[in-house]
Amino acid sequence: MISVLIPVYNNWDLTRACLEALAASTAGEETEVLVVDNASTDATPQACPALGRSLFGERFRYLPQPVNRNFAGANNIAAAEARGDWLFLLNNDTLPRPGWAAPLLRAFDEDPQLGAAGPLLLYPPDSRGLHRVQHLGVVLSLRHRVSHLYEYLPEHHPVVTRPRRLQIITGAAMLIPRQRYLALGGLDEGFVNGFEDVEFCARLCREGLHQRVIPEARIIHLAGQSEGRRDKEKDNSSRCFTLCGHLLQLDEMRQWRADGYQPEVSPWMTLEPGLTPASRVRLLQQARKGPAALAEAAQSEPLWLEGQLMLARHQEAQRQNSDAMYTLTMAAHFYSTPDAILPLLDFVGRVAADEKRGMELLREELRDYVVTPELREAALRELHAELLAAGEPELARQVEALQQDAPNFFSRQYRLLEAALRTGSAMPHGE
């Protein structure tokens, strides 16, 4: 039996929707549901027990707490009470799809070294009706930076369905044998709603186990709905990597390479999953066959920034402004540096100038890239040393090229950023 553990704190509407979706997706399956209420002050204490019993009968338990035990404490309380052989940690801002359980259980049968497994988490459908990736696994980059792998890619992109081994998966939806969870001591309650899943996965890695996301199991994740979700992020991150940094390896670039991408250092000192020269040539050749071919090429590879910008320019020329806005917004999700943000800001400023709030948010993102020549040179030196230490000499050489090209960077690319922040005009149209 699977014991589904759901910590909650207020947000009753989310919890209600989650329980209803869970009941519909587990009809006839052997599951129990334990909701741990972290001292909610909204309708949850009154409404949750009745709804849970109506949906799950005796398979439902409501565990109210006198104080907020946070994510780790709530899950540990539920794990101790659970009767199932399997624990499924589940956020209340999720909507399970039918059939999520069987692929996760099957993964453990097929892989004896599997520590924990999770479903593919998807955002709700966007304005075009597409589900996009919220969680396909967590990867580790330089400076202990963790991020969701390929966030916002369409759910049917080839890299989304490729089997892969991971160090870290999110605790928002994680299946693990109950005895393994208990043997490891559960989640570390020293964290405050963040990074406890990273540290827990590191302990699984220490035991010689790995994690997987199983794309056949799919759950909608609204993401970031918990109150105060990011309040302790810096403290949580520092504590996590003090405890377990030595147990984890840099794996972001390894995952990119396995998927056919070529890591590259952007002029803005970020690491990006670039396309190989052969892929770029193939896509450009296809795009030159006409507007329909351009759209097909750009949409087939969302990480091809040049193609997204070409498509957006064509859409604007055809007065397809809503399509151009969508294309540019998605490009800024995939490649969130000024190379993508500036064209979006320029478009909004010319076509939707009344969107003042949106323009200010874009300018706020650009402010993260403000730098002096002296600070940029120091940062490039540091990045160069980190890449050499990580065994990435080719990427270190790219940094050297950026150092040599600094005058051109500040006279061209950086000038556009300064103009956008100073006047709101991102760039001359068509530049």
SSE map:
Elements: E1 2-8, H1 12-25, E2 31-37, H2 44-56, E3 60-64, H3 70-81, E4 86-90, E5 94-96, H4 101-110, E6 114-122, E7 133-135, E8 138-141, E9 145-148, E10 173-177, H5 178-183, H6 196-206, E11 210-221, H7 233-244, H8 252-258, E12 262-265, E13 271-274, H9 277-287, H10 291-300, H11 305-317, H12 321-334, H13 338-351, H14 356-367, H15 373-389, H16 393-404, H17 406-411, H18 413-423
Parallel strand pairs: 1-2, 1-4, 2-3, 6-11
Antiparallel strand pairs: 4-10, 5-11, 6-7, 8-9, 12-13
Helix pairs in contact: 1-2, 6-7, 9-10, 10-11, 11-12, 12-13, 13-14, 13-18, 15-16
Detailed description of the structure:
By secondary structure, this protein is an alpha/beta fold. The protein folds into 2 domains: 2-257, Spore Coat Polysaccharide Biosynthesis Protein SpsA, Chain A, CATH 3.90.550; 260-372 and 411-423, Serine Threonine Protein Phosphatase 5, Tetratricopeptide repeat. Helix content is 48%, strand content 17%. It has 18 helices and 13 strands. Strands 3-2-1-4-10 form a 5-stranded mixed sheet, sandwiched between helices. Strands 5-11-6-7 form a 4-stranded mixed sheet. A two-stranded antiparallel sheet has the order 8-9. Helix 1 (12-25) packs parallel to helix 2, helix 9 packs antiparallel against helix 10 and helix 11 (305-317) packs antiparallel against helix 12. The longest helix is centred in the last third of the chain and has 17 residues, at 373-389. The chain is globular and about 65 Å long. The mean pLDDT is 95.
